[in-house]
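Could you help me review a protein record that somebody else here produced? This is what I was given.
***
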Amino acid sequence: MQPSASVCEARWPLASTHLSHADAYVLSLATLPTSYAASASSPSHKIDLFDKSSLRLIQSLPGHHVATTSVRAVDHILGAPTRTLISTGKDGSVKIWDERSGSHSIKLTSLGNTSLGLLSCDASPTGDLIAAGSEFQGQDSFILYWDPRQPAVPIRTHSSTHSDDITTLSFHPSAFSPPLLLSGSSDGLLSISNAIEDDEDETVIHVGAWGPSVSQSGWYTHPDNNTSLGIWAASDMETFSLWSDQLDQRYSVDIRNPSVHTTTRTWVTDYLISCYPSNNGGIKVYTGSNEGDAALISPPTLSSPTNALGNWTLHSLWTGNHIGIVRSILPDEENKVIITGGEDGKIHLWKDDSLFDMVGMVDIQDDMDDQDVDMDMDTHLDRSTGMRNGRKRERDEGEESAGKKARFYREG
């Protein structure tokens, strides 16, 4: 990996705070119109809301009484263009929150089965369809769909898409019909489904068999063509992959291998925190160190055969203020800041001076179908599985089925 010509390193945050419960740590972050939401682990399970400029605690939402497993900010609910917080829990519900009342305005329930823990959720671009993914129970795991106007019972349930915990869901960002849902699971599969198809045998449109347990995934646009979409995915084994919008695998790598060792700078990745699409196209990859630092890196540009073996690029560092693992990171491009949350229970607000060079952004074209791509790695990955011997993340009982982002070794 090579450092950008304008690497930014921030050592002092603009503001800092901590969760309302001293013994909890940050599971995930989301941005709302006037606040940042931070989901807390056990024993809290609350969702704290912090002022965007000062990180002052505004209020604490009660979350889910068993465990809050995911939080997500969506742009529409029932067609209303209001950015809204939704969450899932081990209590088997999806909650749509009303900041003004400090409580949920809508509670979606899973057939009265409170023992069916929900791990992931998303809303369709128009907000008239909510999807949630369940943990594996008995012989099934479920994707449940609700019309928010009828919260008591899902309008459809799919049980054959995955055969293990459904850890990540993401609707296609375009509001076309039928709405498409990307899902990822501990079974090692990524799937794209027709979200309004009642026949389970007909719902799955594309499947990508990666191999390792999928912990995160999402959509992004290509930097030179904002109408062309790709898919990224991350696994429990710190592997990272890129896919076409029809789930043809383009790329798979151990995220710990790209590193920087120069006379002036060293960066070694221990784990992937998360990825976000850039407003200008492309994908931002955020990684962390066991010492509590975070970095923004980008893959090589794969569309050029001459750069197929190119380097990753290091763009930014945020260092020296977390103790231990950085659990979550949230770029706020509108305000040019970035928010980090860690296992130390702290939340930091940083200035984001990243000069994100589009040359370093990933751009995968169809002509990559037959091209085998390796990277600046010590070990080549099996492209069919993305597997290699390495550290796995232990799943925290109670809440961390929510994206499975515990940064420990998996036992067994």
User: Anything to note?
Assistant: The chain has a mean pLDDT of 85. The chain is about 0% helix and 45% strand.
